[in-house]
Amino acid sequence: MVHSGSASGGHYYAYIKSFTENQWYCFNDAQVTRVTYDEIRKTYGGGPSRGGYYISSYASSTNAYMLMYRRVDKEQNAVPMTPDQFPEHLKVLLENMQEAEERERQQKELDRSMCKIKLFCLHPRKHTMQEMRLKVHKDASLAEATQTAHQIANLGDVPLECCRLVMYDDCAESLECSLEEVAHQTMGQILGGVKSSYPFDLLLEIRKPHETFQPYKIGGTTVKVHVVNLEANEIARAVVVRGLKTQTVEEFKAQVAQQLGLPSSNMRMVLENYHSGLELLTAPGRMLKSEGFGKSNTVFIEFIDEEDSKLPFRESQFFEILDRHINTIVIYVHLPQEEEVLLEKQRMSSSAENDQRCGSVEDEGGTATARSTQQTQTANTALSDGYDSDLCDSSSSGCRGGDHSEDSSLTDSERTLVGDDMSPRNNSPDIADADDSGSVEERQPKLVPSVEMTDQIKRSMLEPSGSMSAAAPTAAASTADGVAEEASGYSCGNVAQSQAEAAPIKEPRRYFRAWPYTDKEDGSRKLRVYVDKRITFGALKKELEQYVGIDSSHFKVFRVYSNNQEFECTKLTDNLVSYAEDTKFVIKLGRALKPGEHRMDIYLLSPNAPEPSKFLLDWIFTQGTTVLQIKQEILHKIRERCGRDIPLNRCRLRKKVSGNPGAVYLDSDRLDSDASMFLSHKVFLEVLSEPEKVVSSNSLVLFVRRWRPSTFTFDPLEEVILNERTLGALKDELSKLSGLDPSDIEVAKCPGQFPCPVSSLTVHTEMEWHGTAPSLTSWPLYISEDGLVVLYRDRNEALKELTEEEKQEISSRENVRAAKGAKAVPSPRKERALKIYMGSPPSDSGALSSDTKPSLNSVPIDLD
Length: 864
Fold this sequence. Notes:
Layout: E1 2-6, E2 9-18, E3 23-28, E4 31-35, H1 37-41, E5 64-65, H2 88-111, E6 114-122, E7 129-137, H3 142-152, E8 163-169, E9 174-178, H4 187-191, E10 201-206, E11 220-229, E12 234-235, E13 239-244, H5 249-260, E14 268-273, E15 277-280, E16 296-302, H6 306-310, H7 317-326, E17 328-334, H8 338-357, E18 360-362, E19 368-370, H9 373-382, H10 429-436, H11 440-443, E20 446-448, E21 451-452, E22 474-477, H12 480-490, H13 495-500, E23 511-518, E24 525-532, H14 537-548, E25 555-560, E26 566-568, E27 583-589, E28 597-605, E29 613-622, H15 627-642, E30 651-657, E31 660-665, E32 682-687, E33 700-708, E34 713-714, E35 718-722, H16 727-738, E36 745-749, H17 763-766, E37 789-794, H18 804-821, E38 834-837, E39 860-863
Parallel strand pairs: 6-10, 11-16, 17-27, 28-32, 33-37
Antiparallel strand pairs: 1-2, 1-5, 2-3, 3-4, 6-7, 8-9, 8-10, 11-12, 11-13, 14-15, 14-16, 17-24, 18-19, 20-21, 22-23, 23-24, 25-26, 25-27, 28-29, 30-31, 30-32, 33-34, 33-35, 36-37, 38-39
Helix pairs in contact: 8-9, 12-14
């Protein structure tokens, strides 16, 4: 028996010799394998681990083994049973095991002979690109592989002779080449053998019964051709045409006309160039390669309107339609529930009534601070229904009101109505239901008999059938005056700049079309919107008004990122040019920001409370507003809603930096000018027990806490204000608080996040205490920022000697909060360990006498 490993862990296995065969076998858990004597020798005295079955985790420099002897006596030695001697039930079990092993061997052999490759197919009815996995034997023919692909693509109504397999590049959406020339070869020869991955994919191409397949040469170009109808303002679904880069523009036009059954004499062809936009192909003799054609391209053709063709391309209706098309993206908008909208309207009406009854209040400087519509409405809309329980008699600890983030994710089947034919994303149930209710060809007009005008995204004449689950889409274009008013009235930025640019600039009309629907998972209201990405957020909000059900000045737009993080879109003059397809937005109720306004979160700071930092309310302030004005408005709203009157000179606002209290804002400071708030816009509201003493920005405001080693306790947090940043000034203030002589005071900077809890068991010995230091703001103290927590003690106070019970009680008390928040993590099953005592073994009774007691060096060691 061998133990492979070390004294702290390892694995047991055994070598047993068969008398009948004179062979050694390794018994390792449930596995029995034949081994040679050389492999047994490798276990002697340590050394490298044996190869083959054993893994490196069993390797060790020292192996422990135990030899067990058997007497060789043919009369008494038992021999292993042969299969003929098995009981009947074991014979059946053995037969089943052998059959299962044979099936497994055959399946593995078959898997080693199967070619597995991605298969794509553009479904003729759903017009969606389907992605599948084609598994075909390496000795199968191309015809057999085509038949298998036809079956897994579920093309029962499509004749098999109308399908063929071609090489395809999914990344570039390009048809690489056809396989007619290698049709006599096996799939293993065509694909280059059985591999884990292939540098190309396969596409099951489908033709109409009256058409014929065209051969595709390597190095060609795959072109999506859209037919544009200027009269109907429509763009047809793409038809894929395979050309050669060596063709001229004239030859390619003739090929397109022949394949689509169109005249080529008056055909205008526009290439969508991703570098320079739309390019009209006017040189019939130039080759496609010279015009910028690559592996995959998109072109638009028009051949009916002769009058429009006489205009410059950039001024034609043809360009206008294409420009709108290439700049249109799909976005998803999560709308608030109708009940929330009704409540917001009620708050708006009650706020307006209160505004009429509000008067003016004189501030301390003698300036009339009007509690007019802007200020009162700001507070009413920014403040939520619930207040912090410590400040008001309410159980709510947050005041975010309607800003509840909901999951705006959509299922894959709800992401797109109808998009690019070659894209696998087009599987919306809404349009699928509409298609099932009637024939697509019956409901949609055709430009010519051979081209379907089925682009349901950009169609303005498409009316949904009664069976559609989504509401009827509404098309709208932003009016120039309304957009200009919104953009100029609600754009964010510098106040002076916005005043200088007060003259409204008319914005051209932008495409907007929305499909309302209900999320099947949570029942929330959502929009699927097709919009020109050059539209501004101001114009977009105007378009969304009819779907939200409230004026655009009373809701906010948040962008939702892939990690579900939300970011408010406050600059309404920005557009959606940098936004990708399928971007998600969330609409939240509340007054939107105006020029020069910023939103900030206000937290209640209670240093000695169990929860020192609690969210209090949202607030909107105008850039340049004094801290005094903001405090007056906040206290007025707290008094109005909570009935608590907080004196103005007994509260302060201070910066919030990563959960820690920072610098104190003076009443004369102006936010985002004298007192920069960066991008966080988070502050603490701190209620003081006495009038404010901080009158200078040069003062250093610290929290101090006394450590009493004689009782193993901490005093509550207190505040000290230093006008001089020296250790002597700090010790003088501590002397006033504690009555200790400054020479007897030692201080230590408390690490961690506010309120910086430390263990009383280690604070006295492991903290760096200093009675003297060359500087307060540099080494070794580095106490230079407002809001830091400083511990101090009397160096003459003796340390209490704790018993083990007292230590355990203190440790349990300090760890109770961490224990409540701890999560149980399941651990994998382990083999039960053995304990080996390196000393005298214990007696059978378990009671150890003085003679049999293990030595002092005996320690239990866990072995696997």
